Structures are given as C-alpha cells and as structure tokens.
Amino acid sequence: MNAAELTEALAGARGGSPDAWGEIYRHYAAAIFRFCRRAMPSREDAEDATTEIFMKVREKLGQYDSSRPFGAWLYRVAANHCWDMLRRRRVRQDLETGDLETLPLEHPDPDQLEQLLTQRTGQQVRGALGRLPARARMALVLRYYSDMSYDEIAESLGVRRAFVGVLLLRARHQLRDALTGGAGIASVSRGKP
Prior knowledge:
CATH architecture of the largest domain: Orthogonal Bundle
CATH class of the largest domain: Mainly Alpha
Helix content: 55-70%
Number of domains: 2
C-alpha cells in the first residue's frame, strides 16, 4: 500500500467504510501480530492483543494526526496496549529499583549478540525473549523490532529517557544469558565453561 492508497483508505475508514478499514487491517495485521508475538508471553496473548489493538485503532482513528506516519502511530498504540496488558497481569517486574552494582560494566559485543541471534531459530529467540522480565522484553521489541527512538520507548514504558539506555543494556545482557543458557558470551568465546 503506497502513501496515496493509505491516505485514501484512512479517509474511507474515518468515513465508516468497512472496505477501507479492511484494506488497512489486511496491510498491517500480520506485522502487528509479529510485534505482539515478540512482546507477549504466549501466542494466545498476542492474538488477543492484535485484535484489541485494531479495535482500539478503529475507535481512535479520528485522533490520528495525518501529518505523522500512520505506521509509527499504529506501533505506538500497539506498544502501549501490550505494555498495559502486561501491567494488568502483574507480569511486569520493576527493574528500575534493581541493584545497579550488579550490572556488568562492559557492553555486550553487538557482533557476538548478533551472531547468537542469527544462529538461533525464531522459536528459540521468542523463547529467550519470553524468559525475560516484561519490561526488558518490551524495551528490546520496541527498539530492535519496531525501531523506536529512546524518547518513544520512554513514553511507551513510562520511564525517564535517561533510563532507557540502562534498561536496554540490562535487557541485552539478559537476552544474551537466556540464549546461552546463562553463560555469558565473553566466557563462551574464550572457551571457559
């Protein structure tokens, strides 16, 4: 769907056209489901979230500012909805009150983390993401799967912008550990147990 077709479909959907809404849904539903699948703990949760997100978007379509990209607005609605679902279920763990002294000082080598991600199947990565605390999982999904800025992540998660970098650093360490079964990349790459 190009920009002109999207503009036309949005205008039609705002006017109540079920066909126009169907076009928007068909174009974006698979991507939003993939986003939700990475953000939520189970497939059923992702399916529920996807349905609820599109119901919410349809209701709030009049609030969409057409001077901004529709996809970015849609992902922000999706991120906020998933985060709200996780909060309501009390799955969320507050890392902001964690002990900063236990945080490793070195950054995980992005090349090594990328290698781990490419060596693993989608199911293994989803499983590793599923083992992370909710806030860490959401931060990674927002940053790396939805390409959101630190400001957008801060707004979506309700944290200070300055905390987003710390949150992502912790989340990358946790993901690395989840993918390696608890052994850090550095020790594995040096041949240590």
